[in-house]
Write a structure and sequence with these properties.
Helix content is 17%, strand content 37%. It is of the alpha+beta class.
């Protein structure tokens, strides 16, 4: 610890002096006085004087000084509390911190530490040495995280006397769950207790009651938001909360820039994940303009109620309870490896009584042909549903469908193929969830690897969330990871194109091994036939090779519609024919593919589709020589069972033993009662019979 010397003729302010040593033999030198201040958290400065009147050492909790005229031996020494006095205590191999508030994934350990030092609110940070996870926390309490030993927690520590306190004023407290010690002492002693405890990051006092509470978190909370606080506490005028803070660092941190001026908007209950500036803005447009002008800004949160604009260094949205908050992220992420779809102008009908969510465009007075064309013209449209009764057309960027009570609503999904031949996943761990839910597979006990595989096989799946504590897998049609600090066991796997992808796939589902795998869905079954013919001729030194690959996919969807004497049929055919050609010496390879799809759709007149819930029933028929009556008899014999051999009939005639004490007691009472009734009937006759026998015996 170093000190700045002021003097001569300087002294510390007597109001802030909390300890004095006058003519104390143990503190007779300047070095001894300095040693006392070094080891005292409350000490911010000390005064020392030595003259004919004796030796005087005073410790002060503030750096305020005043001039003492004529005192040539009076000096004041101020502690040089800079960011250099900050140290960190590391809890390695499976520890994390609590109360995360900022996300800087990915960052190395040094950058993460410097960010915490530059943030006066930060009390520690979480880091993963492998995945470079970096989270700032405002709590000093470490927590065990046995799921991954690559995580560590580093708690911020201040040198003795370098911490200061920020008062939140009347009406604020610290979170009730963060208090670890409550004592009956005065506010001055409460501050000293917090100074001498490295776990303490803030304290609250009630002066009228001489109550003191030490907390391992410094986040403020309004009294009115405290659901467990009494009415007196909420109106308390002598209640104060203080945040313990280390000196503010000024370390240089490399920041990425983004020059984009377009934004993706996430409406409602989303906030920024790494805020570096909070300003006042009267409108959303004004907040967006501030972010666009700042190249370090990657996104912003606008609260239209409080008119605050929070600028963020990250593109990631964060879950929030703020319903009036809107988060917008710049479109500055690279699209090189982004998973996307190449969609044709054809569609697959899924069924009736179905709608889509979320909607992004609605067109009224649009017949089916126009509705389909509107979706084709919009490259982001993946599905639509059309309501024939009033010609309503609803387009969606999602492939998620929902059951509906609308019998005239037909749902159509666009036929698409992945835009790359090989895909992989980027893992976001420790509190990431999905933006939208396409298919929730909860209750199926699916492993993490199986969850990724199912998303891999689903063309319209852009990522999957996994909850390790409940073994829950959720497929999503959004590739945007959402940071949810409270969901520590959740992770999000973002589907991306592999860097080795150079060609587009020729089937709707293709594994990372490059092998195609047919998959049967609810609506159609993919049939692939590959014919490879090679002819190789050698003439002198010239070799010629011709390779032709023909892949045909055909999908026939037929549904018989019952009308008043009119039968109609709809057929959708898809044909994909890629051709691979290799020129002389195998130096040039050209791949061309053609997607030919035709839709024949009659005019919808009195149509009716027989469905089971929201999925159409498909009958699979087999060729057989049996007559209908023989089939019915065989089916009846197969389904008939002997009722006498059923377990339910046998259980009715079986008395099961029950060894429980209460059951035995109830049975004994019943037996005694029944035995008593029998005894009342039998005993009188038995007594008379015995008496009669005795009389006859004595007479004879």
């Amino acid at each position: 610890m170093t000190y700045e010397s002021l003097g001569p003729e300087r002294g510390v302010d007597s109001i802030n002096v909390y300890k004095s040593h006058i003519n104390d033999l143990s503190v007779s030198t300047q070095e001894a006085c300095r040693d006392l201040c070094d080891h005292d958290q409350q000490c911010k400065a000390f005064g020392f004087s030595k003259d004919i009147f004796g030796v005087r050492c005073t410790l002060s909790e503030d750096i305020k000084t005043y001039r003492i005229e004529g005192c040539a031996t009076c000096f004041v020494y101020l502690k040089n509390c800079s960011a250099d006095c900050i140290t960190y205590t590391m809890y390695s191999s499976g520890y994390i911190g609590t109360k995360q508030y900022a996300n800087y994934d990915p960052s190395n350990y040094t950058a993460c530490r410097d960010r915490c030092s530059n943030d006066v609110v930060c009390n520690g940070f979480i880091h993963n040495s492998v995945t470079q996870v970096c989270r700032l926390v405002d709590s000093s309490s470490p927590a065990v995280f046995a799921e991954n030993t690559n995580f560590s927690f580093s708690r911020k520590e201040c040198d003795f006397g370098c911490s200061t306190y920020l008062g939140y004023g009347i009406g604020y407290i610290l979170p009730l769950e963060s208090y670890y010690d409550i004592m009956d002492i005065r506010s001055g002693d409460c501050e000293q207790k917090c100074n001498n405890n490295s776990l303490c990051r803030g304290f609250a006092v009630i002066d009228d009651w001489d109550k003191c509470g030490l907390s391992f978190s410094a986040r403020k909370q309004k009294w009115t938001d405290c659901s467990t606080c009494s009415a007196y506490i909420k109106l308390c005028s002598s209640c104060y909360a203080y945040s313990k803070q280390c000196p503010l660092g000024n370390y240089s941190i490399e920041k990425s820039t983004c020059l984009a001026t377009t934004y993706a908007v996430y409406n409602g209950s989303y906030e920024a994940s790494s805020i570096y500036s909070i300003i006042t803005a009267t409108s959303y447009t004004a907040c967006q303009s501030r972010c666009s002008a700042d190249h370090f800004c990657h996104g912003f949160t606008f609260n239209h109620v409080t008119e605050t604009c929070s600028l963020s260094e990250s593109l990631l949205p964060r879950t929030s309870n703020c319903a009036e908050c809107f988060f917008s992220a710049k479109d500055c992420s690279s699209t090189t490896n982004r998973y996307s779809l190449s969609c044709s102008s054809t569609f697959t009908i899924i069924g009736q009584n179905l709608t889509i969510f979320p909607l992004f465009t609605t067109h009224n007075d649009s017949d089916f042909i126009r509705c389909q064309q509107l979706c084709v013209d919009d490259t982001s449209c993946l599905s639509f549903y059309h309501r024939s009764v009033n010609n309503d057309c609803h387009l969606s960027k999602s492939s998620v469908l929902f059951p509906s009570a609308c019998p005239t609503c037909e749902y159509y999904r666009r036929n698409c193929l992945p835009d790359c031949s090989l895909v992989t996943f980027v893992l976001f761990e420790l509190g990431y969830t999905m933006m939208t839910i396409k298919n929730d597979l909860a209750g199926q006990n699916i492993s993490f690897e199986e969850c990724q595989r199912r998303c891999h096989l689903d063309t319209y799946c852009f990522g999957c969330g996994y909850y390790s504590d409940t073994i829950r897998c959720v497929l999503s049609d959004s590739s945007v990871p959402v940071w949810s600090p409270s969901q520590l066991s959740s992770s999000f796997s973002q589907k991306v194109c592999s860097p080795d992808s150079t060609t587009k796939p020729t089937s709707l589902h293709q594994l990372t091994t490059g092998k195609t795998e047919p998959q049967t869905t609810d609506i159609f079954q993919e049939q692939q036939s590959t014919e490879i013919s090679r002819q190789q001729q050698t003439t002198g030194t010239i070799k010629q090779q011709t390779t032709e690959i023909s892949v045909q996919q055909s999908t026939d969807i037929s549904r018989q519609q019952q009308t008043t004497g009119i039968s109609t049929q709809q057929t959708i055919e898809i044909s994909v024919q890629p051709v691979l050609k290799t020129t002389e010496q195998g130096q040039t390879t050209e791949i061309s593919s053609q997607l030919i799809t035709t839709i024949q759709r009659p005019t919808p007149v009195n149509r009716q589709i027989i469905t089971n819930g929201s999925v159409q029933c498909i009958c699979v028929c087999k060729d057989t020589a049996q007559s209908l009556q023989e089939k019915l008899s065989q089916r009846k014999n197969d389904l008939t069972v002997n009722s006498k051999t059923l377990s339910s009939r046998l259980r009715k005639q079986t008395s099961v033993a029950d060894s429980r004490l209460l059951s035995c007691a109830i049975g004994a009472v019943g037996a005694i009662i029944l035995g008593g009734f029998v005894a009342l009937i039998v005993l009188p006759d038995l007594c008379q019979s015995v008496s009669y026998v005795i009389k006859i015996f004595y007479v004879n």
